[in-house]
Task: inverse folding
């Protein structure tokens, strides 16, 4: 695994030194992206063979610029970008042209036409001739069930030692792709829990994060922030696609924190968090029939007993939410 990881990192560095690519420009057609994935992305070149529009959702228009004659490499980059935004396919609208003619011929709609006519490259840093590709990223409706796995609301409660009950602190709203849309993110208790949360360690897309490596069973990300210690997050994934362990390494202090997940088959049971100061948090999950976590009880575990700290409840998006947000984006 380590040898493979090193080879992949070396290949990425070598590739970045030999070819000149511009950062693709992505213009969303949905309210926000779908969850990212590593699945195969279909590419369609002939508008006569584009999928039936009743079978997909338009995700984004992607405009890619490259100083390279190797179109296959540029298509591979487009597919990678499509994966990041949760798309399952790309429709090639134009190569060295705007893509407007193809969009009209395929009746892709006014929203697409408006974007392809105004799409521009970004991060331009060479005066040499370029190859430009405009594509429409799409999500197959048969795969929209993935939205059902995305948390819509998270309600946080704190244990009150006087009344011995959990009292509500805040409600947090998330997008399809696990990004926080609303809620008090400066709350100290939230900040503490967030530092061990999946949505932060695995999915957060803020500028502070940089992905170093992504394989089937391993994701390595680096977190850097001004006046904060740098941290490397290594997420191990089992063959069922579920997270089984996250290791947080702090290179400056050589400290590490370990989060281990427990399952009964595919049913998640909880997590154990061993913090840098040897404090142990234990989380117990309550799940529904679809094995989605609906409630989490967080305890501070000592040798003598477990002290209740927090309760977290989750509600999830549905495919109806997906359709309503797509319509909302169109109306905007």
Result:
């Amino acid at each position: 695994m380590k040898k493979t990881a090193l080879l992949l990192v070396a290949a990425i560095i070598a590739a970045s030194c030999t070819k000149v690519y511009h950062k693709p420009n992505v213009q969303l057609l949905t309210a926000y992206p779908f969850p990212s994935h590593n699945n195969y992305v279909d590419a369609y070149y002939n508008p006569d063979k584009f999928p039936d529009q009743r079978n997909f959702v338009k995700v984004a228009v992607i405009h890619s610029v490259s100083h390279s004659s190797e179109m296959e490499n540029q298509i591979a980059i487009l597919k990678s970008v499509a994966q990041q935004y949760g798309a399952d396919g790309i429709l090639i609208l134009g190569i060295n042209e705007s893509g407007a003619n193809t969009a009209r011929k395929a009746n892709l709609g006014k929203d697409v036409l408006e974007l392809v006519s105004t799409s521009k490259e970004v991060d331009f840093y060479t005066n040499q001739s370029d190859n430009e590709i405009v594509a429409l990223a799409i999500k197959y409706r048969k795969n929209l069930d993935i939205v059902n796995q995305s948390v819509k609301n998270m309600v946080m409660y704190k244990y009150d030692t006087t009344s011995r009950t959990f009292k509500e602190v805040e409600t947090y709203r998330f997008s399809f792709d696990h990004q926080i849309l609303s809620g008090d993110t400066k709350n100290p208790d939230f900040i503490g829990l967030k530092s061990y949360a999946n949505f932060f360690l695995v999915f957060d897309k803020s500028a502070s994060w940089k992905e170093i490596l992504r394989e089937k069973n391993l994701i390595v990300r680096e977190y850097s922030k001004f006046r904060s210690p740098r941290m490397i997050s290594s997420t191990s994934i089992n063959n069922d696609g579920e997270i089984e362990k996250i290791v947080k390494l702090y290179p400056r202090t050589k400290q590490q924190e370990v989060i281990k997940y427990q399952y009964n088959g595919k049913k998640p049971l909880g997590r154990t968090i061993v913090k840098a100061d040897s404090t142990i948090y234990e989380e117990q999950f309550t799940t529904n029939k679809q094995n989605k976590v609906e409630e989490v009880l967080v305890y501070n575990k000592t040798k003598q007993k477990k002290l209740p700290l927090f309760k977290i409840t989750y509600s999830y998006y549905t495919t109806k939410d997906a359709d309503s947000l797509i319509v909302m984006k169109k109306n905007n």
In short: DSSP finds seven helices and 18 strands in the chain. Residues 16-145 form one domain.
